[in-house]
Amino acid sequence: MNNFTRSGILFVVSAPSGAGKTTLCTNVRQTPDLVYSVSCTTRPIRPGEVDGEDYFFLSKADFKKRMKAGEMLETATVYGQFYGTPKGPVLEHLAAGRDVLLDIDVQGARQIRASRDAKIKEALADIFIMPPDLGELKRRLEGRATDSAKQIALRMEAAVEEMSDWKSYRYTILSSSMEEDLIKFRAIIRAERYLSRRLDLENVEA
Ligand code: 5GP
Fold it and tell me: Residues lining ligand 1, CB < 6 A?
């Protein structure tokens, strides 16, 4: 009987803040066959967030120490705070055939695309979530009520910059409703799992 085995896929998702990526990733995280990579950050913890679940909240000194020790797959500075993906767990999951989801910004995605590690290169499937338009993005940011007017202006500026990177990603989803975005996202995940180049054929005696 023929059977397929494969190594894990590294799904990298980026979007300007307010494009609905976090909600999308939260939905996808509930899928048991996908492991969410918990990032490290130096930004303060927000109400409702759990250390070790949403992020590993670190001091700047601790973050730098880990970075110097080569423990990060990629790092970025976003709004003056450090963010980074712990390397060890990602590599372990991929080697064990588990798919991993990274919710990271465009700087981080760029570093992963530029990685010289063949395993990372082969595993990568990157997805950009494009906001429907800037006006809608602004409305979504204002609707969150967590950011000040100054922060919103900063995020809008960053969004324009980030959006210019979309062509570098293998897939782009033009964000509409959460349900639609999720359907498209899941379609990408499915298709990536059937790529011939990811599969190994195993003949198991019936
Ligand atoms: P927030 O602080 O609102 O949770 O995230 C701010 C931005 O940082 C988001 O665009 C998010 O995707 C990005 N981010 C979160 N974790 C990481 C990470 O490990 N690496 C990089 N490069 N960006 C990250």
Answer: 17, 39, 43, 74, 76, 78, 83-85, 103-105, 107-108
Residues with Cβ < 8 Å from 13, sequence gap 6 or more?
21, 24, 25, 101, 102, 103, 104, 126, 127, 128, 129
**Nearest C-alpha neighbor of 10 from the set 92, 107, 105, 130:** 92
Q: Tell me the pLDDT tens digit for each residue of 82-124.
A: 999 999 999 999 999 999 999 999 999 999 999 999 999 999 9
101, amino acid identity: L
Q: Which atom, in ligand 1's list, is nearest to the CA of 84?
A: 19
Hey, CA dihedral for 190, 53, 14, 132, is it positive or negative? Answer: positive
Q: Distance (Å, rounded) from C-alpha 97 to C-alpha 81?
A: 32
All domains of the chain in start order, with CATH: 2-37+98-203 (3.40.50.300)
Q: What global pTM score does this model have?
A: 0.92
SS3 content of the chain, % helix, strand, coil (to 5): 45, 25, 30
Ligand 1, atom 10, residue with closest C-alpha: 105
